[in-house]
Amino acid sequence: SRLKLNTRIYQKNKEPEYFQSGTIKKHSEYIQLDMEQFIDQLQSGETYEIPEIYIGMYQKLPARLILYKLTET
Fold first, then answer.
1. How far apart are alpha carbons 12 and 26 in whole angstroms?
2. Please, what is the Cα angle at 64 between 6 and 47, to 5 degrees?
């Protein structure tokens, strides 16, 4: 299905920050992705897949994202 424009998309941070107790700092657990950056790199008609992403501002639901840049016509 298609995402709304205001949907936030995240990837898991491979190197999150930790407290001294060993728990992960919440602000460093996920990295927000900039979709404009991905779309600008694509040519017309090209697709790009991101296998492990998380959608949502609060819940972070796991998903797979496929980007497709429409052709001119």
1. 11
2. 85
Give the torsion sign (CA, 6, 7, 13, 19): positive
Token output for 68:
């497709």
Q: Are strands 47-55 and 9-12 parallel, antiparallel or unpaired?
A: antiparallel
Stretch (H or E) spanning 40: helix 35-41
How far the first Cα of the chain sits from its last, in Å, is 22
- Which of 36, 73, 30 shows the shortest CA–CA distance to 55? 30
pLDDT along the chain (73 residues), means of 10: 89 96 94 91 93 93 94 80
Report yes or no on whether pTM surpasses 0.70.
Answer: yes
Enter the DSSP assignment of 5: T
